[in-house]
Structures are given as structure tokens and as C-alpha cells.
Write a structure and sequence with these properties.
It is built from five helices and six strands; from the N terminus they run E-H-E-H-E-E-H-E-H-E-H. The chain has 199 residues and is α/β, with parallel strands linked by helices. The protein has a single domain, classed as Rossmann fold (3-Layer(aba) Sandwich), CATH 3.40.50. Strands 1, 2, 3, 4, 5 and 6 form a six-stranded mixed sheet that branches. Helix 1 packs across helix 5 and helix 3 runs parallel beside helix 4. The longest helix has 23 residues. The protein starts with a strand and ends in a 6-residue tail after the last helix. This is Flavodoxin family protein. Pfam families: FMN_red.
């Protein structure tokens, strides 16, 4: 089984990222379950704006799309900006939108059978709203969501402490991260054994 994390921080490497910190913790939980994991910081790649699978002219999305297609579980990790998912996260959802009309040999959307989860960090309120926005987009595209498919941390409003700066991970976040991984893994195993019916 394979899990892919698309980290949607606005910052390219090597800048530190709280979104990537939380993503790494989720991936570590998947690793404990024997899942093969990979993390991609989307800002390190030239993903063009649009809603097609391949926009040409050096568009980096086709290579990332292949990674999505090869994964059983997709994690979207995003910061909160102005109460919304990051613009990078929105771009990922827009590019995934191209696959809504693509089907497998039995007529099922390509993302049917794949499980999705979300990780959110920020220094303001809005984690539930952000995860709801991303959940709906992923579900529209065809991903399946497990119970408790989100982990998040939100600091005080207008406070300068980032998640990556914490001395230790809060127990509530560790618990949510563990639950996300266990439930997503369980659901992916079930869907692997019994796929959705063809239309």
C-alpha cells in the first residue's frame, strides 16, 4: 500500500514548513502500519494554473498526477490563509478536477477506490472550515473519506508561534494523527478487496 502527501505550503524548500511538519507526523504513522510513503512539497514544482491534466510548456502537474494515481491514500496538508486553504492547495484541487471525467476500464472515475485525508495548520481559527472545503473537493473528484480523516493544529489568533516551533506535539494532535492514519489505512484495505461497483 502506498500513501502520498501533497504539502501545500506557500514556501518552497528549504524553508521550514509547519504543514510539512504535521504531514511528516502523519506519514510516520502510516509507516508504522507498513505503508510505503512519499511526500511532495508542491511549491517546489511548477504546477500551472488550470483544470486540465497536462497544460504543457513545462507543467509539472502530469508527473505529480502519476504519483496520485499510483497511491492508495492521498494526504493534502495545507496551512490556513485568510480562513481558507492555501492557494497551492486550491490549485491542486483544480488540477485534480480534470480527472472527474476520466474513468477506468469498467467506467468508474479514476479516483474511486482511493482514500483521502487532510492535515491543517494555522495561527487562526478555521481548521474545520478548511478541512470541510478540501473534503468536499476531494469527494467530488471521487476520493473516499474515512471517519476522522483530519488532523489539525491551530494556534492563538495573531500569535507568532508556529506548529513547527512547538517543543512537543500536543496529545490531542498526536491522537488525531494516529486515528487518521489507522482509519485511512483500514478503509484503503477494504476498498482494495472490494472496489466500488461499476456504473
Amino acid at each position: 500500500m502506498r500513501a502520498l502527501s501533497l504539502v501545500c505550503t506557500l514556501n518552497s524548500s528549504p524553508t521550514e514548513s509547519s504543514s510539512e511538519t504535521l504531514s511528516d507526523q502523519v506519514m510516520a504513522e502510516f509507516g508504522k502500519l507498513g505503508v510505503e510513503v512519499e511526500t511532495v512539497r508542491v511549491a517546489d514544482h511548477d504546477v500551472h494554473a488550470g483544470v486540465a491534466a497536462d497544460l504543457g510548456n513545462g507543467d509539472a502537474w502530469p508527473a505529480l498526477r502519476e504519483k496520485v494515481l499510483g497511491a492508495d491514500i492521498l494526504l493534502i496538508a495545507t496551512p490556513i490563509w485568510l480562513g481558507h486553504p492555501s492557494s497551492v492547495c486550491q490549485r491542486v484541487l483544480e488540477r485534480l478536477n480534470a480527472d472527474m471525467s476520466e474513468t477506468d476500464d469498467e467506467g468508474r472515475p479514476l479516483m474511486y477506490g482511493k482514500v483521502a485525508a487532510v492535515a491543517v495548520v494555522g495561527n487562526e481559527d478555521g481548521a474545520h472550515k478548511v478541512s470541510a472545503d478540501v473534503f468536499q473537493g476531494l469527494n467530488d473528484i471521487g476520493f473516499t473519506l474515512a471517519a476522522n480523516a483530519v488532523t489539525y493544529w491551530v494556534g492563538e489568533a495573531k500569535h507568532g508561534t508556529d506548529y513547527q516551533d512547538l517543543d512537543e506535539t500536543p496529545d490531542s494532535v498526536s491522537s488525531a494523527t494516529h486515528t487518521l492514519a489507522v482509519n485511512a489505512h483500514h478503509l484503503a484495505e477494504l476498498l482494495g478487496k472490494q472496489p466500488y461497483p461499476a456504473p
